[in-house]
Each structure stands twice: as structure tokens, then as C-alpha cells.
Amino acid sequence: xxxxxLGRTGLKxxxxxxxxxxxxxxxxxxRGKEGIQEMERVIDRALDLGVNIIDTxxxxxxxxxxxGVGEVMKKRRSDxxxxxxxxxxxxxxNPEDIEIALEESLQRLQVDSIDxxxxxDVTSPEAYQKVVEGGFYExxxxxxxxxKVKFIGFSTHGSFEVVKKMIETGDVDVLTLAYNILxxxxxxxxGEDLKITSQRVFPLIKKFGIGLTVMxxxxxxxxxxxxxxxxxxxxxxxxxxxxxxxxxxxxxxxVGTLAHLExxxxxxxRAYALTPEEIRxxxxxxxxxxxxxxRQCGYCLPCxxxxxxxxxxxxxxxxxxxxxxxxxxxxxxxxxKADACVECRKCEKRxxxxxxxxxxxxxxxxxxxxx
Length: 371
Fold this sequence. Notes:
This protein is an alpha/beta fold.
């Protein structure tokens, strides 16, 4: 495993960490104590393999992910750099709610101090203005002074202008940004152009000595789906693609199983470096996912009609790759289907990728109910 210094924090992080949102995709959040025990088993193995940074959040499984991490912290605290975050600011006008969220995270993680703590998904200019002028980010600075957290920052899907404002405050230690092989602007209104991220944002982050952690290297798992030809992009190589960017300090793909972990951790070994030819091939292959690829982040939820939007979007993505009749059956087994959509577009306002979700719901109903 290769290690890099996380900007001016001085923390030495493994180039490949693990993201605990992946546990949810494997259904562990719904399995109670048994799920927590399985998370503990995977995290323990990750540490044995040289991983030393774990990305989590209070919202993942309503705290279940942090509980899983916490069980490991009881015995291996010195082996782990914890990155956690909250988006309590999105539902509140009271900065004290951030203090409450932090205290709850400390309890679930069973630690006295969190290594890195961020405000989650601060993406629009309005969001950044709210957290700074409304006193929400000040709570993180206070917690840092008190020693409850060591380093602070943001996770964001924002434009270059938004990230530039964050960087220039001088109060940011670590930023978490999405970055993967989709080197393209997905829709006209999309602020998060990954080519700009690589060419302009990353160098600016380095100039200011800020730590950089990368999320969504697998596109929420969607980039690993196989096409009708049975071929797909290798998860190992997709993560290695991100690791080989010299500006990246660490990448934290969502991990759900031991098998998944064993494969992805190899990306931290220089022996798996990609050749220029392989990189060109992957960038060309990735174009087939188009501009409306759902990353399964779940930020679109909750839906007022209780539509399981990520599940339906995943069925659509799989249908695009291979028109399997089993997908129709899976759709029809859903308790609430896409036809419940009233096009309120609340989900679209939350989606960091500006996906036209209401249109996708119409497509899903036409494809899966019309067959």
C-alpha cells in the first residue's frame, strides 16, 4: 500500500481508503446487529491490508455506518484516520444542530476526537453562503479549537467558483470531491465538470496545501455494470485511474463485502499501475454511460411520494447495459413505482448531478410497465 501526506494536516493516509456508504448498497444497514458485525469484519480486514482512512457520515444508514466503525475503534483506534461529516445544516437554520450531530457522531464512533470532520454536500453558492454566514461552519472551527475534531472542511459537488471560495477562506484543512473516469460535463447546467476539477481545482487545492480525498471513483457502482456483451470496466482499474492522478491524496470507494475490499485495495499497489494505453481505453469506454448516470448517492431522497428513486435509476442503468427481462420483474415487485411521480422536482433540486429524474421516472414506467 502506498501512502501520501494529506496536505498541511501532516496525516499520512493510504492512497486507497474505504467508504462506508457501500455497506448500505449491500443491505447491511437493514440487518441491525448482524450488519454491524459484518461491517466490523470488513473494516478489520481493510486495516490488516494497509488501509488507514475510513470515510463515513452520520447520515449513512441513520448512523449505522458510524456504529460499525465505532466497534473497530474500541480496539484499533491508533490504526485509523476517521473522516466523518454531517449535512444537518440542510434541514436546519440553527448552528447548534451541528454541535448535536457532532456529539452523536462521537458517541457512535466511540472516540474522543474525530480526525477530519466536514459539512456534507455544500455544493451551490447559496449553500456555501448559508453555512458560512449562518454560523454552521463556525461550529466546526469551534470544535477544532476544543479538540473534538482535528481537521475540518467540506464535501462538495460544486463548481470551480464555489470550491475556490472554500479554499480561499483559509479555514479549510480537507476537501472531499467527486472524481472518476467520466472526464466530461454531464449536462449544460452541471457545475461539477470533472475535467475542470482535474485541470483547475486540483492544482489550486495543492497550492493552498489542502488535503484532497476523492469520492465516487466507481460512479456509485454504476461504472462497474456489465454491458450486453458481458464486458465492464474493472473496479480495480477504475480506482487505480484515480490514484494515478498525482494531486489525489486518497480515494475512498464504497466497499460492501470482503471480496470487493480485497479487489479494490490492490489499487494502492504500484504494481497495478495503468499504462497510457489502458488509460486512453478506459476514457473511451466510459463514454457509453452518457450524461444521466445515477451515482446512487441517495441525495434525491426523501421523495414526497416515497418512490425508491435510486433503485429505479439503477434498474434503468442496468437496462441500458442489457435488456434483461428479470429487471422488469424486479421493477414490478417494487411496492411504489415510478408512476407515483407527480413531477414536483424536489429530487432534481437535491441531485448534485442535475439528473432529470422526473423524466427518468417516465422512462422507467414506459419501459418496465409497458413491456
